[in-house]
Amino acid sequence: MxxxxxxxxxxxxxTLTNTVNRLSQNLEDSTLSKKLKVSKKPDGDSDSNSIxxxxxxxxxxxNWSGRLDxxxxxxxxxxxxxxxxxxxxxxxxxxxxAFFIPYVIMxxxxxxxxxxxxxSLGQFSSNGPLTCWKYSPMFTGVGWGMVIVSGFVGIYYxxxxxxxxxxxxxxxxxxxxxxWDNCEQEWNSENCFEELKTCNGSEYYKNPNGTCYKTINxxxxxxxxxxxxxxxxxxxxKRFASEEYYYNKVLDISDGVDNLGGLKWxxxxxxxxxxxxxxxxxxxxxxxSGKVVYFTALFPYAVLVILFxxxxxxxxxxxxxxxxxxxxxxxxxxxxxxNDAANQIFFSLSASWGGLxxxxxxxxxxxxxxxxxxxVSVGNCLTSVFAGFVIFSFLGxxxxxxxxxxxxxxxxxxxxxxxVYPFAVxxxxxxxxxxxxxxxxxxxxxxxxxxALLETVTTAVMDRWPDKFDRKRxxxxxxxxxxxxxxxxxxxxxNGGAYILELMDAYAGGWAVIIIGLxxxxxxxxxxxxxxxxxxISAMLGKKPWIWWRLCWSFMTPAILLFVLxxxxxxxxxxxxxxxxxPKYAEVIGFCITVVVVIPIPVYAIWRVLRSNGSCLEKLRExxxxxxxxxxxxxxxRLLAGYDPLPEKEKAPDTGKDxxxxxxxxxxxxx
Length: 671
Hints:
About 60% of the residues lie in helices and about 5% in strands. It contains 24 helices and five strands. The longest helix has about 35 residues, at about 5-40. The radius of gyration is 29 Å and the shape is elongated. Keywords: Disulfide bond, Membrane, Metal-binding, Sodium, Symport, Transmembrane, Transmembrane helix, Transport.
């Protein structure tokens, strides 16, 4: 028998001691995890694990300070200008009630599943859209696409808010009336009229083109229209006073995108004011914006209800509602209608823009996100439908007043909000009061969404470079982003700025967000795996998601998105601004905007595969597999979800190892 030295014996004893300690710690961790799983209830009912508001659960990142802060922020983010402007416009453009069918289908099978998916991803990982892809790092380019979309939309969305500020200020300038309540202003043309005139009397001359003139001091002056059919055949378009105020005074619009003209200083000041408001509301992070939304998310409903009641009392209202609800079945045969419905769902719910991931990343781990999904999705849809009743009741009245068809009353687009609604308030008693309330409503609707768009961009910057930009420097980051976006937005303050805005709206959030949504569902259900994702959700809710969500994420949602994408390419039609058709080079610029959004997806995936180790198949497997830092941010939640704890106060290195509950700390291309 070989003798063992004292030194060797001491080494063996130390090794045995370390092994016993490690096994003991593993047993203790396993016991704690089981206790947490048993004791922790879905809504945090357990005394030891209940959700406590007023103090941060995640001290490094911060959390919403109130129980309703997140819900109202999500509701405000989803319910925005798109509900009172874009949804009615799409109905107006796509055959009224026919648009409801694809819209509801897209809501149930696409919008709600992606909404729930994004809230789950953000809340579980406590990461923004750039760093939440640790479950499959090769898809980090999807996050870059989301941030770029939010950037594009944030730039032009604040311009619409600036228009609201312009109208809000203008509502005080002509008391007791409004600047757009008559056709006697310097910006009005001969085509402006307040009502259809019969032009009876010897002093009137009826022109064969449908117009009538009256001689005043030896000069013929157009007095109105006596035959709208003849006028339209002659290419003379009737215009409401509110329509001419918007196009001729507010925008002072040029004849096309290739004629930008000069900078309108009034719009530039309003845009500056919009960015100052956004900065002040966001400079303290989610805690400040979370309090603001208690007002901004609820106030618009009060104004819409008042306008709805007034609209229901007007002549011609029934024809407007009939147009709104009666479907044009032939429209359903066109791919554009389905594409518009899908885009409207993404726009309305703000899905695949990164904002939902950002907002939910500040949630407490046990927040009931399924309940939030149902409330916000259904509430958003009902708000859009209700806003449609409001606007089409007034469209019916306007059509009745000028004796024309409803689909010929006004042009669509942003003008629907800034022509029909301003006209609507002139029909109320005390118009300035209602104008002030309405444009204050538009302002609050826009601000809710703008908060989340900017939060998405700034959170992405902080998550991407956490060592350089911590929470203490967040105010400076927000300031820098606001200044940069304001300078870019000055192009929208020119005479041709409205053409640029419409181009950005058509191409930044069209096909691009559908592709992003498709990549999200594929990466989580097919690459990461339904079972893993289901277990992650179970750790937060206390139960696995219904089989319905699996059917949507695994089959119906990606199938519908592929269908819409494919047929919208086949049945492609260029973007328009009313009757104006963009030149070819503008269309090319639009496609470039779409490419800028989606190109990071394949580029990052290829880059991630190439930098991995091993053979081609091994590289692909490593790039698609989660690594050691994937999972909840806090160790107590990692144990609950069955993940290995991370070292305290330091981040695990991005080694790319394939292991349970791991993921790459994906800090972009410079990893």
